[in-house]
Amino acid sequence: SQQGEEDPQALSIQEGENATMNCSYKTSINNLQWYRQNSGRGLVHLILIRSNEREKHSGRLRVTLDTSKKSSSLLITASRAADTASYFCATGGSARQLTFGSGTQLTVLP
Amino acid sequence: DGGITQSPKYLFRKEGQNVTLSCEQNLNHDAMYWYRQDPGQGLRLIYYSQIVNDFQKGDIAEGYSVSREKKESFPLTVTSAQKNPTAFYLCASSIGADEKLFFGSGTQLSVL
């Protein structure tokens, strides 16, 4: 079974609202990564957070990591229609060991 | 522009046929990967290569083969032994083993 699982599976919000999606995992990790995938396209890396970090920011993105709860969250602030995509968390000790969840489908309505 | 190029974008396979998906990168990355994505699901690792002339099986290697004769190229062959090949195939690369992945735009493989 896959290590990281995102929640919710689907999320629909209005433009300008914040979007929060969560990722839970089962075993110890070195780092956790978030990726975005537009329909029919490849994945784009968003943020990598290491196991000794608790929070990381990149533009409108904020990622938190709670290793005691084995969970992470991705917050997108002031969402735009262009943020509509699937968002995946990936966990593992190294790139070759990464396991991806099944993703959260985010729809931002104009 | 630096990046990963996958071709073709769409590919159709007939029964019993082998098909090869191309993946080329000009990022000078050592490591390259092939993933399979089924509808509504995450990615599963097929094969990875950390250096030229070396590659390792991932979680779902059966029915697939790869080669890594050049640093820039990591083609994937879907053989006739792969009975359910219809999926979206993604190639990726990374600078090192513990770094983020850069992805190509994918190849959609379908069975005729």
Describe the structure.
The complex is a heterodimer of chains A (110) and B (112). Chain A has 110 residues and is mostly beta strands. Helix content of chain A is 0%, strand content 55%. Chain A has no helices and eleven strands. In chain A, a hairpin with a 4-residue loop joins strand 7 and strand 8. Chain A is globular, with a radius of gyration of 13 Å. The termini of chain A are far apart. The relative contact order of chain A is 0.34. The model of chain A has no long low-confidence stretch (mean pLDDT 92). With 112 residues, chain B is mainly beta. In chain B, 0% of the residues lie in helices and 50% in strands. Chain B contains no helices and eleven strands. In chain B, the strands form two sheets. In chain B, strands 2, 4, 5, 6, 9, 10 and 11 form a seven-stranded mixed beta sheet that branches. Chain B has a four-stranded antiparallel beta sheet with strand order 1-3-8-7, with no helix packed on it. Chain B is globular, with a radius of gyration of 13 Å. Chains A and B meet through strand 4, strand 5 and strand 10 of A and strand 5, strand 9 and strand 10 of B.
